Amino acid sequence: MASAAPNTPVWETLDWTALPPVSEPLTCDVCVVGLGGSGLTAIHELRGQGVDVIGVDAGMVAGGAAGRNGGLALAGLAPFYHRAVEDIGRERALGLYRATLDEQQRMLEATPGHVRVTGSLRIAVDAAEGEDCVKQFEAMQEDGLPVELYDGDFGRGLMFPTDMSFNPLARCRSLARQAIEKGARLFESSRATEINGESVVAGGHAIQCGSVIVAVDGRLDQLLPELSGRVRTARLQMLGTEPTTDIQLDRPMYLRDGYEYVQQLPSGALALGGFRDMHEADEWTHDATPTDEIQELLEGFLRAALSPNAKITHRWAASVGYVEGTLPVMEEVRPGVWAIGGYSGTGNLVGALAGRAAAAAATGAETTLLALFHGA
Q1: pLDDT, the chain, mean
Q2: Number of domains in the chain
Q3: Is residue 27 assigned to a domain?
Q4: Integer distance in angstroms from the first to the last C-alpha of the chain?
Q5: Which is it for strands 72-73 and 155-160: parallel, antiparallel or unpaired?
């Protein structure tokens, strides 16, 4: 495996000053465990309601999948729209899809310097996937959702004009800074070891609170063992390159039902992930270290389909939660403890929606979004 930055995402710019750990007992209204995109969204939602909130993370802000993913903000749930309709019904699937479109606009407004509206491509790699693209297109058109047929340089499939690409690590750091400015208290290097609806022990100190939101995707099954039968942690691997002119990708694309995904950064560098299913048994793991087997597959795809010459500069992996079915976890798992996660690889928008829903649930509010998650 060619040398590259060891398990460092291409998104890292070394512009972050570490936040302090919890160093004394604290009190708040709501404690949020996990400072990724979903947790930070919940914190912003709570502060907007005037709620006193503390956020803690075992590592750093967006140190997990939130800052190590593919940087794609794709509308919809993890299953393609027509499959979601089949599983949870048209009303809920459409409501949640429209909610992700709204979330795209919120992303643009909250962190405009880190987000680009590029659209995205779903490329069919064979006839069966081509037929599935047609089914998705027909279902989305029938419900008035933004989609176009694509026939271009990279093959045939679908184009989604509202989708976006972004630097996930920079965006989360921006959200964290904004949350602190709004009065939230955030702490890094403060692992939660005990969680109940009245307190969280983080970094060895108790945080007394009225309710808790556990906003962790990968390893959620370890933090809350009662979810281990519903949530499984998988390793997703990526690589990044130096800027290249071998190829010009105007928008991100994903292939083979989304198992492979790539975007080109404004600098010309490529960020590419995928092939988890090629060694699936090995990739159901809590270990977030890149492996030679998957990295060789990624490099082979890079050379054959994208850029024969670009130097690989980064190789990294992240832990991500998967669930069976369409909807992620968004529920009260212990009295006063709300868990969100299991986004099945598409948490940048859905995770934010889950964060907003959890903020409502933790404060006893009733919202349309909460009803969509619960099927009410």
Answers
A1: 96
A2: 1
A3: yes
A4: 50
A5: unpaired
Nearest to 358 by CA among 34, 45, 47, 75: 45
In a domain, 159, yes or no: yes
Q: Which of 233, 215, 180 is nearest to 33 (CA)?
A: 215
| Domain ranges, residue 249 | 5-10+21-374
Using an 8 Å Cβ cutoff, are 204 and 56 in contact?
A: no
- The distance of Cα 300 from the centroid of its chain, to the nearest Å, equals 26
Give the domain CATH number at 322: 3.50.50.60
For 44, how many CA atoms within 13 A lie in the half-sphere containing its CB?
Answer: 22
This prediction's pTM: 0.96
- Residue 16 inside a domain? The answer is no
Cite the DSSP H helix spans in 49-126: 81-88, 90-110
pLDDT digits (tens, 9 = 90+) for 15-60: 999 999 999 999 999 999 999 999 999 999 999 999 999 999 999 9
Which tens digit of pLDDT belongs to each residue from 232-273?
999 999 999 999 999 999 999 999 999 999 999 999 999 999
HSE (side-chain half, CA atoms, 13 Å) at 173? 20
